[in-house]
Amino acid sequence: MACTSANKEAAMDNVSREVTIKARHNGPYLVTGPIRLIDADGSEYYLQEGVNVALCRCGHSATKPFCDGTHKTGGFEAPERCLCMLDARPREETV
Ligand code: FES
After folding, report:
1. Is position 36 within any domain?
2. Would you state the pLDDT for residue 88?
3. Which of 52, 60, 64, 73 to mutate to test the pocket of ligand 1 (most atoms within 8 A of CB)?
4. Considering the domain boundaries, does residue 80 fall inside one?
5. Cross-strand pairs, 35
6. Which residue among 61, 66, 73 is best mutated to probe the pocket of ligand 1, counting the most ligand atoms within 8 A of its Cβ?
7. How many other C-beta atoms lie within 10 A of the C-beta of residue 27?
8. Looking at the DSSP assignment, which residues form a beta bridge with residue 52?
9. Structural domain of residue 32, as residue ranges?
């Protein structure tokens, strides 16, 4: 996932589009762009619309914030449901 000016422009053109985050069963968060991700060092990654990236939620990846598959051998277990931290009612359409 190279951070090029071309994919930055494409991501920024789509900033109003919806981002999807899916919690994988005992695995990472699968994020579908367009997004701009900034790591702890300030490095920016631009993900174009429809492109996926897996973000570590087990804490064991050597490539954080990205998942490197270590969760599979580390015995990571996590609920994949939203647990009342959010108002989980279906979203109403806005015009
Ligand atoms: S969730 Fe895959 S390595 Fe952490």
Report:
1. yes
2. 55
3. 60
4. no
5. 47
6. 61
7. 19
8. 32
9. 5-72
- 94, part of any domain: no
Which residues line the pocket of ligand 1, CB cutoff 6 A? 27-28, 56-58, 60-61, 67-71
pTM above 0.85, yes or no: no
Burial class, 51, CB count within 10 angstroms (exposed 0-12 / middle 13-18 / buried 19+):
middle
Q: Which two tokens stand for residue 22?
A: 């899916």
Number of structural domains (the chain) is: 1
Q: Judge whether 49 lies within some domain.
A: yes
Residues of the chain with pLDDT under 50: 1
Give DSSP secondary structure letters for the chain. ----HHHHHHHHHTTTSPPEEEE-TTS-EEEESSEEEE-TT--EEEE-TT-EEEEP-SS--TTTTB--SGGGTTT-----S--SSS--SPPPP--
Q: Which CATH number belongs to the domain containing residue 47 in this structure?
A: 3.40.5
CA distances 18 to 45, 49, 61, Å, are 17, 9, 27
